[in-house]
Amino acid sequence: MSGLTQVSLFLQVAVQMGTPILFGTLGGILCEKSGNINLGVEGMMLMGAVFGFMTALHTGNPFLTIAVAGLAGAFGALIYAVITVTLRGNHTVTGLALTIFGTGLSGTLGKPLAGLALPNSILRAFSAYNVPGLSKIPVLGEMFFQQSVYVQIAPVLAVLLYIYLTRTYAGLSTRAVGENPGAADAAGVNVTLVKYLNIVAGGFLCGMGGAYLSIVFVPRWQENITAGIGWIAVALVIFSTWNPAKAIFGAYFFGALRGVGFKLQNAQLNLFGFELRVSAQLLDMIPYLMTIVALVLIVQGKRRENQPPAALGNPYFREER
């Protein structure tokens, strides 16, 4: 196997592993741009994973599978929105509670699903395929155009989300609410509605990301199938400086780090005549160590465009504006 082929295959795996991270990151960006910190990404992804798998198993309909998975994540986000927006609860505590809730719910509902195989209609719908013409492009063809349609949807959604936030009135309203909800309210923006719509839409994307793991990447049900991907997505929101376009590269970078961990498992290294076996647990730490490094580097930067929304995490009281 040539070196170029090996690189292409590695990048293909990096994109596959980065896809759920990208979905979770986009959901987090959408939520935080409206001024709400949601640490429940992991929980919403697990809810999407289990409900998506159940729908695929019982209906065999790929469109319904994605819809139900997204709605499961959106439902979790709606719970979060009611507590933080309407009841003005603490964002951090509510997000953590949502993760615990999603983890417990997916574990309970997923117990009878272990070992069950998905219908062929689902496997065919989400299997990798070659896009005519584009799949022959060196490296890039293997990365994006010899993949499942689920993988190809993710960067398209990231670009659309970037356009939404930077080129539309609705996106401008979202950014205004995240920066200064009082000023946005005075300008006629319905702050509560904007927050609800963006939080729930972000939950829908997180649910889709979770379903990718259970119906495309594995595809089997495994307890705690996200394995911490939601937390990487939370950090990647900051790493990408709340920019959906940057999130594409960040997600695939962390996907590559996870790919390195899988590739080097059980590998033996010869060092000064001694054979060393790399610990699988140590390799699993690589993405999280890089997450910490990335966050430190971002925090050190002082450029305004790299800073979080000014009102992020602050409950809005209309009577106080």
UniProtKB/TrEMBL annotation:
Bilayer topology: Multi-pass membrane protein
Major localization listed first in the record, in broad terms: membrane
Listed GO CC annotations: plasma membrane
Membrane-spanning segments: 6-30, 37-57, 63-83, 149-165, 196-218, 225-242, 278-299
Keyword terms of this UniProt record: Cell membrane, Membrane, Transmembrane, Transmembrane helix
Gene Ontology molecular function terms on file: transmembrane transporter activity
Subcellular location: Cell membrane
Family annotation (PANTHER family): ABC TRANSPORTER PERMEASE PROTEIN, SUGAR ABC TRANSPORTER INTEGRAL MEMBRANE PROTEIN-RELATED
Name the UniProt record assigns to this protein: Branched-chain amino acid ABC transporter, permease protein
